[in-house]
Specification:
This protein is of the alpha/beta class. The chain has five helices and seven strands.
Length: about 150
């Protein structure tokens, strides 16, 4: 794994290493939108993208990201099963599951799989910054850096 790059606020003050994020969604257009949006957040570094759960498991094992933003519904392996397998493999990224149908998926099902949050894609502009801030604060508090 490469060295983490420090984040600099306006004025040049370092705020700590960037949060390494893996994007997992079967829609290249949605991944591109997420990449663009997250690129506006200075504390974020997108380390890779994947289009299904199988690729997500491999990328988590290879890159050890801090955060995985993963769609629930994907071909080959869905996000819930990929989350279970990532947790069973001993990896500890924060996993934020994304869906267009949050009301159709019980939050308990996502938590049971090992997800840290279930977010509706329609509300990401409102919810994602707070979720990223929570991860950032937790990493700072615990000093956890894989």
């Amino acid at each position: 794994m490469g060295a983490r790059r420090p984040v600099r606020e306006a004025g040049g003050m370092e705020t700590g290493p960037k949060r390494r994020v893996l994007l997992v969604d079967d829609s290249p257009a949605f991944r591109g939108l997420l990449q663009w949006y997250l690129g506006t957040l200075p504390e974020i570094e997108i380390v890779a993208e994947a289009s299904d759960g199988e690729q997500a498991i491999a990328e988590v094992a290879r890159l050890h990201p801090d955060v995985v933003l993963m769609d629930v519904r994907m071909p080959k392996m869905d996000g819930l099963e990929a989350t279970r397998r990532i947790r069973a493999g001993g990896e500890s990224p924060r996993i934020l599951l994304l869906t267009n149908h949050a009301a159709a998926i019980p939050a308990g099902l996502a938590a049971e799989a090992g997800a840290d949050a279930l977010l509706d894609k329609a509300d990401l502009a409102d919810t994602l910054p707070a979720e990223i801030a929570n991860v950032t604060n937790e990493i700072r508090a615990t000093g956890r850096h894989d």
